């Protein structure tokens, strides 16, 4: 069987506790190199629900893709990669706001 050269085991757990709903999410993702012997990247996300469960879910669904689509993410320069990660967070944040504004407008137009 194919095996990558990196031994990586990851697990995650979310617990609702005393709240009525779970507002935290986690995500684990990776991309192997073409020869499947190494990883291009590994992504571990813990999304806090302080902005509401919807905010955490939105970040889980969009943050990683936004970061890896940034051209500088694939640079050999560490500063470029860090900038891509920062820009990805900011872009995801604004996309979340835009989505929330669309929802509010739909509700407002309904009334």
Task: Set down the secondary structure blueprint.
Layout: E1 25-32, E2 39-47, H1 53-69, H2 78-110
Antiparallel strand pairs: 1-2
Helix pairs in contact: 1-2
Distance between the termini: 59 Å
Major pleated sheet: 2 strands, antiparallel
Task: Name the poorly predicted regions.
Answer: none
| Arithmetic mean of pLDDT | 82
Task: Give the quaternary arrangement of the chains.
Answer: single chain
Describe it:
By secondary structure, the chain is of the alpha+beta class. The chain contains 2 helices and 2 strands; from the N terminus they run ββαα. The protein has helices spanning 53-69, 78-110, and strands at residues 25-32, 39-47. A two-stranded antiparallel sheet has the order 1-2. Strand 1 (25-32) and strand 2 (39-47) form a beta hairpin. Helix 1 crosses helix 2 (78-110). The termini are far apart. The relative contact order is 0.12. The model has no long low-confidence stretch (mean pLDDT 82).
């Amino acid at each position: 069987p194919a095996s990558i050269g990196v031994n990586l085991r990851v697990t995650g757990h979310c617990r609702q506790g005393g709240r009525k709903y779970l507002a935290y999410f986690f995500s684990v993702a990776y991309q192997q190199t073409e020869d499947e012997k190494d990883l291009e990247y590994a992504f571990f996300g813990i999304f806090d629900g302080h902005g509401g469960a919807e905010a955490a879910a939105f970040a889980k669904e969009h943050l990683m893709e936004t970061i890896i689509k940034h051209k500088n993410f694939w640079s050999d320069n560490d500063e470029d990669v860090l900038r891509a990660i920062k820009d990805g967070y900011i872009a995801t944040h604004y996309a979340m706001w835009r989505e929330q504004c669309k929802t509010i407008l739909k509700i407002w137009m309904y009334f």
